[in-house]
Amino acid sequence: MALKIISVFGTRPEAIKMAPLIKALEREKNFQSKVCVTAQHREMLDQVLRLFNITPHYDLNIMKEKQTLSEITTSALIGLERVFNSEKPDLVLVHGDTTTTFVAALAAFYHKIKVGHVEAGLRSFNKWFPYPEEINRKLTGVLTDLHFAPTTTAKSNLLKEGVSEENIFVTGNTVIDAMAYTVRKDYVFRDERLNQIDYNNKKVIVVTAHRRENWGQPLENICNALKNIAKNYKDTYIIYPVHKNPVVRETVFSILKGLDNVLLLDPLDTDEMHNLMAKCYMVMTDSGGLQEEVPSLGKPVLVLRDVTERPEAVEAGTVKVIGTEQQVVYNEGALLLENKEEYDKMANAVNPYGDGKASLRIIQAIKYAFNLTDKKPEEYKGGE
């Protein structure tokens, strides 16, 4: 009888990273793979589902305008209870650090179902940064049976917390698998404005900043620094896909709207964003996922946060954590615009996050854990 696996996710970043795993699960005759989305984010999630041709078996559709974390938690928990009562899966797969991730692991625990945590073991060691993700990830880890750690650093974090080594599998990050589906040299953007940019002669900076801990003064600092970069470096072109959250949009548009060499866009579809990053000069972001994706494209990343739970790329040299102080953000951006040696040092660093085979390692690990094979997958070594 086939092993029944339900993959649960609710946001665009989760969907991007779970998509290649779901496609791989679909090809396995030993597994009955089902997908449940909470739709904690709706529109941005749907873009990814269409891109990867994934049709969920269950869609809880919990998103409401200005929803609180408590509302997301309770709505998802009640919805998942119905799904798990109906399906009675052998394994629930969750990803990363969203509220959906934690709640799905908790719901599985309540039903005595095993949990597999994709991208397990990342830690910032500060419960408020990123908020609420750091605690979501730690709580999920407590409830998890199979920990799919992307790097040896993540494995080390789990071991220090008392997780048994036999339950940890170092797999690489599935986001690198996903990019094999999306990045193409002959890519044509659906937004014509992106096709008209001279990527060869303009230093295109792609920016994303929207995390909760950056709301208010930190985001104002970031935007004012970008404004000064745009004014002082006319050979640059800043492209900022702005998150739909009204708090973010109000700040960003009030400071950056109307500048000739700044393009403010709605959030881009996954394939558009990946191909834009492939063409750009560098990325400035507070996103966790982009810290993993961009290094595989050979572009420097300046992280607009005070801490990161992804230290591997910092150690490798392709990512630099710069915080949100206005002058520091400006200075670090200017350094990479002016200093070719500093730029090349970051652009040529090795990506520690994956080789495109993480999904296959995870499937092998599941087979091993459920005694479908006696062969344990080899650990991904790129994070050392």
Can you give a write-up of this model?
The protein is α/β, with parallel strands linked by helices and 384 residues long. The chain folds into two domains: 3-173 and 354-370, Glycogen Phosphorylase B (Rossmann fold, 3-Layer(aba) Sandwich), CATH 3.40.50; 188-348, Glycogen Phosphorylase B (Rossmann fold, 3-Layer(aba) Sandwich). The protein contains 16 helices and 13 strands. It has helices at 12-26, 43-51, 69-87, 99-110, 133-143, 152-160, 174-182, 192-195, 217-232, 246-256, 270-279, 288-293, 311-316, 326-338, 340-347, 358-369; strands at 3-9, 31-37, 58-59, 91-95, 114-118, 146-149, 168-170, 203-208, 236-241, 262-265, 282-285, 301-303, 319-321. Helix 1 (12-26) crosses helix 16, helix 9 runs parallel beside helix 10 and helix 9 packs parallel to helix 14 (326-338). The longest helix is centred in the first third of the chain and has 19 residues, at 69-87. The radius of gyration is 20 Å and the shape is globular. It comes from Thermoanaerobacter kivui.
In brief, what are we looking at here?
Its EC number is 5.1.3.14. With 384 residues, this protein is α/β, with parallel strands linked by helices.
